[in-house]
Amino acid sequence: MSKLSTKVCSPSVERLKAEAQRLFANRGIDGVTVRDIAKAAGQKNAAAVGYHFGSKEALIRALIVDGAKIIDARRNNLLDALEESTGPNSISQIVDILIYPSVNLAAPGETDTYNRFLRMLTMSHSDLFEDALEGRWNSGYQRCLKHLRGLMPSKSRTIQNQRFIFLGSYLGGVLSARETRLDDTSRAHSTWNDKSTLAHFAATVTCMLEMEC
């Protein structure tokens, strides 16, 4: 699977992006200044963000798209393979495609922060998130929802829509919490480090979608 580091970019720009995303993930979009980002990235010039990106908002948009492109490509590749093999045949197959492409996004040696960044962003600037995607970088997610509708024929459109709202919040919340715990080196987090945890999470998502009212 692709990593965020595969995009060719200058080391200084990549460091600005990585530190900005980390700060946004920990402190929220409005709690971070361009000066904070430049300092964290080791840039002596506080105008580094403006020089490389034009503005703080432009940097945020770049971060959104960088991660979204990778997740979307991963999902679409998995969906293509599944459809070629006459699938999907179960909700759990689609749930796996919703979850696993969204983890392990960071470059080697870096800590994952993308899900936390998105969580903080969408709590206060959801319009910016949607606008940055331009309707282009969430096609895999939309394909997943389309397949889920076909796999949930006993549910009314209203119930399906409600479950999908729960789905989005549940995915974002748990994946964000996972990143937070894995980034905490002050103590061991046996649950989040357990390889079975994501599989158990996927099982609970599947149950939520399948359950009868």
Automatic annotation (TrEMBL):
<dbReference type="Pfam" id="PF00440">
    <property type="entry name" value="TetR_N"/>
</dbReference>
<dbReference type="InterPro" id="IPR009057">
    <property type="entry name" value="Homeodomain-like_sf"/>
</dbReference>
<keyword id="KW-0238">DNA-binding</keyword>
<keyword id="KW-0804">Transcription</keyword>
<protein>
    <submittedName>
        <fullName>Helix-turn-helix domain-containing protein</fullName>
    </submittedName>
</protein>
<keyword id="KW-0805">Transcription regulation</keyword>
<feature type="domain" description="HTH tetR-type">
    <location>
        <begin position="19"/>
        <end position="63"/>
    </location>
</feature>
<dbReference type="InterPro" id="IPR001647">
    <property type="entry name" value="HTH_TetR"/>
</dbReference>
<dbReference type="InterPro" id="IPR050109">
    <property type="entry name" value="HTH-type_TetR-like_transc_reg"/>
</dbReference>
